[in-house]
Specification:
By secondary structure, the chain is mainly alpha-helical. It has five helices and two strands. Helices cover 57% and strands 3% of the residues.
């Protein structure tokens, strides 16, 4: 029986994306605390979020495919993809009572799993992951 192994570059990207995602989420929630005037600026995340953010590594072929498209097209594709991943992972976690987020009290939510008003944040996050996983070569774009 042949043993299947995960390619090292993919594993490194998965860990990199998971770590960056955690850092983004902690920073984002800490800035939310600042908005509420909670000056200790405590940010938070969940261990479940590491593999969810790590899955951005699967998008490397998409980043390479879209790298010659306009910034608005790329960012929109990435944001919509992230919405899909967030909704799907949230549904899966919700089935097991493990979902660490619930947007039911927010105005622009979909089934409490995604927030449409987060589109600009996911747009920028997608471009950040693109920059990390598929840096542009030269001045083609």
């Amino acid at each position: 029986m042949k043993k299947t192994t995960i390619p090292l570059p993919f594993l490194k990207n998965f860990i990199k994306c998971g770590t960056i995602g955690w850092c983004m989420e902690i920073t984002f929630t800490a800035l939310g605390a600042l908005r509420r005037r909670e000056l200790p600026l405590i940010g938070q995340t969940s261990l479940w979020m590491f593999p969810i953010y790590g899955c951005a590594a699967f998008f490397q072929p998409v980043f390479l495919l879209f790298r010659h498209c306009h910034l608005l097209v790329r960012g929109t594709v990435y944001a919509l993809s992230i919405f899909g991943a967030e909704y799907t992972s949230g549904r899966l976690l919700q089935k097991h009572a493990l979902c660490p987020w619930n947007y039911n009290r927010c105005r622009w939510h979909v089934n409490g799993l995604i927030r449409i008003d987060f589109f600009p944040f996911w747009f920028m996050a997608g471009l950040l992951f693109e920059h990390i996983l598929a840096p542009h070569q030269g001045k083609n774009c």
